[in-house]
């Protein structure tokens, strides 16, 4: 009986938490709807007198608004991608792992399982990254989101303003949403500013539209400042091919920690998020390369490019020479 009450209470709390998680999204939607009303009706249709200016303002505003709303929708409703089945422990392996009481043996079991998978990152202690809640070996850059209660591929962060986990499947949409949000606020602020001055100087009659125009400028500037900082930070992350989690906690590879382990160069870093086809960079359509389970790494990229890492090619060349018995490559290099 008591167990049933606990389960019911737990379910009710979970339901309440899910409902409350939509409150930030609702706030944003209400602010955007008010801004639409204030700009279209109170500014363009009531305050602006020139017909040509009205048309230009409305066309440009709706063009920006469509992309702003589209990217926000995609950020909210694009589900986070989870690791596929091959990263999950089989029923037999799960039983063996849970029944084993020796930590060192459990660690070795995970090492043996990970040999069959494209996994190159480790925990701080050098162990294979394993999620004991999802019962899977975490792919590179994958993390468990406690809010979503699942492992998310290339997890960046959980964003309450979209009520979604930002990761491999929707990071491009989130960046686009930030970009169009900045553009949306900037456009409103620049076009409203002249009428703000006119109202301030008393050149326009003090009617109901005055409040909407004045407050619209204030809200646009306030959101612009906060959004441009956030957008700038994520642009920096993209230029370094990092996630928010990797910026705060350096990823550990099989050969140790490396803060630039996924940094492939500026252009390739951008392509890792937006894809190779530039015509899709501004459109909220999935174009990120790969499947989110494995990613090109700097170490591998360098080993394939002699201009980035010339140590291995030189060593191979030295090793291919026929040295006299008892001599060394170091001696030959010293002589040359």
Oligomer: single chain
Largest sheet: 3 strands, antiparallel
**Total beta strand runs:** 9
Which blocks of ≥5 consecutive residues have pLDDT under 50?
Answer: 303-336
What is the helical fraction, as a range of percent? 55-70%
The span between the termini is 86 Å
* SSE sequence, one letter per element: HHHHHEEEEEEEHHHEEHHHH
Overview of the molecule:
Residues 326-336 have a biased composition (Polar residues). This is Palmitoyltransferase. It is a multi-pass membrane protein. This protein has 336 residues and is mainly alpha-helical. It has a domain at 15-83 and 139-303. 57% of the residues lie in helices and 7% in strands. The protein has 12 helices and 9 strands. The strands form 4 sheets. The protein has a 3-stranded antiparallel sheet, with no helix packed on it. A two-stranded antiparallel ribbon has the order 2-3. The chain has a two-stranded antiparallel sheet with strand order 4-5. A hairpin with a 4-residue loop joins strand 2 and strand 3 (136-137). The longest helix is centred in the middle third of the chain and has 33 residues, at 208-240. The protein is elongated, with a radius of gyration of 27 Å. The protein starts with a helix and ends with a helix. Residues 303-336 have low confidence and may be disordered.
């Amino acid at each position: 009986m008591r167990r049933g009450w606990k389960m019911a209470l737990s379910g009710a709390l979970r339901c309440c938490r899910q409902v409350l998680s939509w409150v930030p999204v609702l706030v944003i939607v209400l602010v955007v709807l008010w801004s639409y009303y204030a700009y279209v009706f109170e500014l363009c249709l009531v305050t602006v007198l020139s017909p040509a200016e009205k048309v230009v303002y409305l066309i440009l505003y709706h063009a920006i608004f469509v992309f702003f709303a589209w990217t926000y929708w995609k950020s909210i409703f694009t589900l986070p991608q989870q690791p596929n089945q091959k990263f999950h422990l089989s029923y037999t392996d799960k039983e063996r792992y849970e029944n084993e009481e020796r930590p060192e043996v459990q660690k070795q079991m995970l090492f043996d399982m990970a040999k069959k998978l494209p996994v190159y990152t480790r925990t701080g202690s050098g162990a294979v990254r394993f999620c004991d809640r999802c019962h899977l070996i975490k792919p590179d850059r994958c993390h468990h989101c406690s809010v979503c209660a699942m492992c998310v591929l290339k997890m960046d962060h959980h964003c309450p303003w979209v009520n979604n986990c930002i990761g491999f499947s929707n990071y491009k949409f989130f960046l686009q949403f930030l970009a169009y949000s900045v553009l949306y606020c900037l456009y409103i602020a620049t076009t409203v500013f002249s009428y703000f001055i006119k109202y301030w100087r008393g050149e326009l009659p003090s009617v109901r539209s005055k409040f909407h125009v004045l407050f619209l400028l204030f809200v646009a500037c306030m959101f612009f400042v906060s959004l441009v900082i956030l957008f700038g930070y994520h642009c920096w992350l993209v230029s370094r091919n990092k996630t928010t989690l990797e910026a705060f906690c350096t990823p550990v590879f099989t050969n140790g920690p490396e803060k630039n382990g996924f940094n492939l160069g500026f252009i390739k870093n951008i392509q890792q998020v937006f894809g190779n086809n530039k015509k899709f960079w501004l459109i909220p359509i999935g174009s990120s390369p790969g499947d989110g389970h494995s990613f090109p790494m700097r170490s591998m990229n360098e080993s394939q490019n002699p201009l980035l890492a010339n140590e291995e090619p030189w060593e191979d060349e030295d090793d291919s020479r026929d040295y006299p018995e008892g001599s060394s490559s170091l001696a030959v290099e010293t002589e040359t």
